[in-house]
Design goal:
- By secondary structure, the protein is α+β, with helices and mostly antiparallel strands.
- The protein folds into 2 domains: 19-106, DNA polymerase, domain 1 (Orthogonal Bundle); 117-234, Cytidine Deaminase, domain 2 (3-Layer(aba) Sandwich).
- The protein has 8 helices and 6 strands.
- Strands 1, 2, 3, 4, 5 and 6 form a 6-stranded mixed sheet that branches.
- α2 packs across α3, α5 crosses α6 and α7 (169-179) packs across α8 (199-214).
- The longest helix has 24 residues, at 91-114.
- The protein is elongated and about 65 Å long.
């Protein structure tokens, strides 16, 4: 193992507890090399960035503490000064973490700009999750899709608090009609980080599904962006939108 591998965080003394002490099949770095980064949980990816723990606080505890305190997307809007107050995190470790989450956000932005079909809720998260999860307010967007499920437009329809009383179904559908789209996905965020749908979210979704049917518009999904451990919630997958409605296309 070279000197830069799992280097102890700077700015702390004591004997670090290293990831290499874990069984080989549980070490995040080895698992990433064997199975790819997608096979790792968020805390395991953070363990690779942090490298090792400090006396009395191992790397597993440190990574979980960051996720509990900030959430993965919350790290994107966190200042270096705040992370430097975390025991065991020095300037080198903090800059690695902030650089990594910034690269993730830029990759998501590039993916969105590149276009291509939306094949499921995960695609929506990849393209819009980082941005929406970091807003301090609720925001509703309508993704207007063509027959290939590529995004033609993604206007922001509402900002503020989402309630059935102030989200007008006609305004959501109007975006699709104006752009001459054939399908739509509603996306909004919960600044709390918890994507669990409220009663208003469910009622709005059901009303929109009924209205879209009347307008011969395929309402594919309503996706709520979180930002904590659960990144998003698909109301299609949750059964709020009935199976009889349009499905994501595979190609």
């Amino acid at each position: 193992m070279t000197a830069d591998e799992y280097a102890p965080p700077d700015g702390e003394g004591g004997a670090p507890k290293r990831v290499q002490e874990l069984p080989a099949d549980q070490r995040p770095r080895e698992r990433l090399l064997a199975h790819g980064p997608a096979a790792l949980q968020d805390d395991e990816l953070l363990q690779i960035l942090i490298g090792s723990g400090v006396q009395g606080r191992d790397v597993v505890e440190m990574s979980q503490s960051l996720l509990d305190g900030y959430g993965l997307s919350g790290l994107l809007r966190t200042q270096a000064e705040a992370l430097l107050e975390e025991r065991g995190l020095g300037p080198a470790t903090v800059t690695r973490i902030l650089a990594a989450v910034q690269l993730g956000w830029r990759a998501a932005r590039e993916e969105r700009e590149k276009g291509g079909p939306i094949r499921g809720a995960e695609d929506v998260w990849i393209r819009y999750g980082y941005e929406l999860a970091n807003l301090p307010h609720e925001e509703v967007r309508v993704l207007v899709l063509n027959r290939q499920n590529s995004v033609m437009a993604d206007p922001t329809v509402y900002k503020g608090t989402v309630h059935g009383a102030n989200v007008r179904i006609a305004e959501l559908l109007r975006c699709v009609i104006v752009e001459q789209g054939v399908a739509m996905i509603m996306v909004h965020n919960h600044p709390s980080g918890d994507p669990t749908p409220s009663r208003a979210d469910r009622e709005t979704t059901k009303a929109l599904a009924e209205a879209a049917d009347l307008m011969d518009i395929d309402f594919l999904d309503h996706i709520i962006i979180g930002g904590g451990v659960e990144r998003f919630r698909s109301l299609k997958a949750a059964g709020v939108i009935e199976e009889s409605h349009a499905e994501y296309r595979a190609d």
